[in-house]
Amino acid sequence: MQATRIELLQSMPVFGAIRDDSLHFLLEVARVVAVPAGEPFFREGEPGSSMFVLEAGRAAVVKHWQGRDYVVNRLDAGDCFGEMALMDLHPRSASVRAEEDCRAIELDAADLHRLFKHDPEQFALMQMNVGREVCRRLRTTDELLFRAIRGETLSQGESRFLGA
User: What CATH number has the domain bearing residue 10?
Assistant: First the structure.
C-alpha cells in the first residue's frame, strides 16, 4: 500500500521532485481518514492546520453565501485540498464535503515540521510546490473572474469554479 501511495503523491504537482525516502517519511506519520458520503472533511470558517490528498472517492468544494451552498469545484482521487491552511494560518476558505465515500491522506503542519527537521531541502521543495499550486489556482481564478467581468459566457465548469 505504501508504494501505491508514494506513486500517487509523485503524480501530483505538490509532491513533484520529492524523493521516495522523503515521501515514505511523511507517510509514516500521516493519517488516513475515511469520510462517508455527505459528510465534511472540514467546514468553511473552521481553523485549519492540515491538507489532504484524496486517495479514493469524490468530494465537492463548497462556499456558503446567503443561506445557500455553492459547489465551486469537484475533487477526484489524486487531488489535494486544504493546503492553504498550511501556508496562511487563516480559517478554512471553503468547506469540502464527500460526495461519495472517501479516503484521504491527511498531512498537518507538525508532519511537515518533522520533514523540515529530517531534510530541510525536501521540506523547502515541498513548500515551493505548494506555493506554486496555490499560485496556479489563483491565476486560474483571476482569469475566470476577468472573463466573467468582461461579460464572457463561461462554461458550466468554469462558472462553478467561480461559484456562479
Answer: 2.60.120.10
